[in-house]
Each structure stands twice: as C-alpha cells, then as structure tokens.
Amino acid sequence: MQFFRVSSLQMLAVVGGGPCGCCLALLLARRGEQVDLYEQREDSCQATGGGRSISLAISARGLAICAELGLEGEVMALS
C-alpha cells in the first residue's frame, strides 16, 4: 500500500471507529504517524435504541487488508 504525504501535519485524526477507521488508524500508526481515533459510541459493537449492529463477512479485499496489517491468522482463527 502506498501513502502520499499531502502536508507537514504532525498529527492525524480518523473519525469513525468502525472496521475501516480502525484499519486506517492502525496502518497510519504503523508507518510512524501520530493518530487520534474518534468514535461517537462507547461500544460500536452494541446496537442501541434504533442503532445499527455490525455484521461482518470476510471478503477477499477484507482478507487482503488483514494480511497487510499482519492479522490474517488471528482473524481466520476467529471465523
């Protein structure tokens, strides 16, 4: 995966702690960026009121990003 620096920012913010936001924050942190991750809900896995629950399926693209993060073995062990 290739990243491009668009400015000389010293800190990055990722808004949304779902699967994509968490993956992006992890990738950025592993390349040495200072990252703050923001999520509105205390527990994004719990549906509240009329909220949404998270149902996940592992696609080829999802498995590829897990491999990129070094998490493929752990994810497959849980599936």
Q: Layout of helices and strands, plus pairs?
A:
Blueprint: E1 11-15, H1 19-30, E2 34-38, H2 60-68, H3 72-78
Parallel strand pairs: 1-2
Architecture overview:
It is a single chain. With 79 residues, the chain is of the alpha+beta class. Helices cover 35% and strands 13% of the residues. The protein is built from three helices and two strands, in the order βαβαα. The protein has helices at residues 19-30, 60-68, 72-78, and strands at residues 11-15, 34-38. Strands 1-2 form a two-stranded parallel sheet. It is flat. The mean pLDDT is 80.
User: Could you report the average pLDDT, rounded to the nearest whole number?
Assistant: 80
Q: How many β-strands, per DSSP?
A: 2
Q: What is the percentage of strand-forming residues?
A: 5-15%
State Rg: 14 Å
Uncertain spans = none
Strands of the biggest beta sheet: in what spatial order?
Answer: 1-2
The span between the termini is 25 Å
Class from helix and strand fractions: alpha+beta
* Helix-residue proportion: 25-40%
Described by strand count, sense and barrel closure, the largest sheet is:
2 strands, parallel
